[in-house]
Amino acid sequence: MRIKYHVAAGLITVAFAAATFLFLTFVFDQPRENPTQAVVPVIDVVPVAVVDTPAVIESPEPAPETKTEIVEHPAQIGEVRDVFVEDNRVWVATADGLLQTDRNGLHYRLIQTAEGLDPTTIAEIIDLDGRILFCSVEGFFEYLGPDVFRQVELPLTPPVNFCHAFDSLSYIAGYDDGLFQYTPDVPVLLKSDLLVTALAFGPDGLWVGTDGDGLWHFDGRNWQKRFLRVDTAAFDFVTTLAYRWPNLVVGTQDGLYRFDGGKWETNTGSQSDFPGGWITDIAFANHRWYIGTADAGLWIYNGETFSPVEQLAETGITRIRVYRNDVYVGTRENGVLIRRAGQWRPLYLPDDSLEISPQLLTLL
């Protein structure tokens, strides 16, 4: 009798547990409304300026205000002066202000006024030992937060006409003070009386281009002016320099020159398919050279031949930057273009009237 009683009690306990489990499963499996979450559909977004707006949340209780990015079109952005790319952010210095955007070009914020610096005067952006600095005619500035800049002390008197960084070493030049090598510890005057326009650093030392005073080489101790015997004025006005072993590439107002350590090769329009003209910037990505011109668009050199990017044939190129496998090209009127996975597309368009699309910028 006692055994039957225990068996019956056990069966009742098991039945009660099973019923409880089924009830809880039914309750917690039911869909519930969460007023703080919503399903975001995937849609085509037109890039526009970022503004702050309170998020609207349906709730019986008052919801706190939160910052929500609303993307608007960055219309009427002027000439691109420089492009600086971080892991998840792109800075674009333009004639109309400093543009912030993500690497996919979906969210924008244009800084036109700020405390401590006029953003429309920024000419170059560099990384100095992990610190992003903005170079303007007034000097170096550090970005502290939304619309706030702080000036960094410099060993020269503004205006600053040039700045460039190689890893942790930076070089700056002023109209009146000459060229300095600038590190966080000791700034060193390298040479006075040079109106610097370009720098390139190679295993043989530092190459310096100037506006009207030719091409110079500095081996760490001595300065030497370099020129062509057949045309001693060819390097008077250097616009850009780049180095990839074993070639030093010199851009001028009249064409492109290459030095392999032993001899010079000239590409000014008559010696090759390259049209020459005013060279604005040079960059390397994998086995390609990207060459920007003031009025003949963007050209690619593969080690043997020059070829134009046909869709940019009449575009004035101002800056070329390479980040990982992406190539960013700043222009005078068409914003910034990015080459990714073999195709060109706009990072942003400065005007809705421009009929440029990713489909039209496929690399031929």
Descriptive account of the structure:
The chain is mainly beta and 364 residues long. It has one helix at residues 2-28, and strands at 80-85, 90-94, 97-101, 108-111, 122-128, 131-136, 139-145, 148-152, 160-166, 169-174, 178-182, 188-191, 196-202, 205-210, 215-218, 223-226, 238-244, 247-252, 256-259, 264-267, 279-285, 288-293, 298-301, 306-308, 317-323, 326-331, 336-340, 343-348. A hairpin with a 2-residue loop joins β9 (160-166) and β10 (169-174). The longest helix has 27 residues, at 2-28. It starts with a helix and ends in a 16-residue tail after the last strand.
Describe, in short, the structure shown.
With 364 residues, the chain is mainly beta. It contains one helix and 28 strands. The strands form seven sheets. A four-stranded antiparallel sheet has the order 1-2-3-4, with no helix packed on it.
In round numbers, the mean pLDDT is 75
Low-confidence stretches: 1-9, 21-73, 351-364
What share of residues is helical? under 10%
Question: How does the major sheet shape up?
Answer: 4 strands, antiparallel
Please compute the radius of gyration using only Cα atoms: 29 Å
Q: How much strand? A: 35-45%
Number of helices in the DSSP assignment: 1
Major sheet: arrangement of strands: 1-2-3-4
Structural shape:
globular
Q: Would you report the number of β strands?
A: 28
First-to-last CA distance: 92 Å
Order of helices and strands: HEEEEEEEEEEEEEEEEEEEEEEEEEEEE
- By helix and strand content, what is the structural category? mainly beta
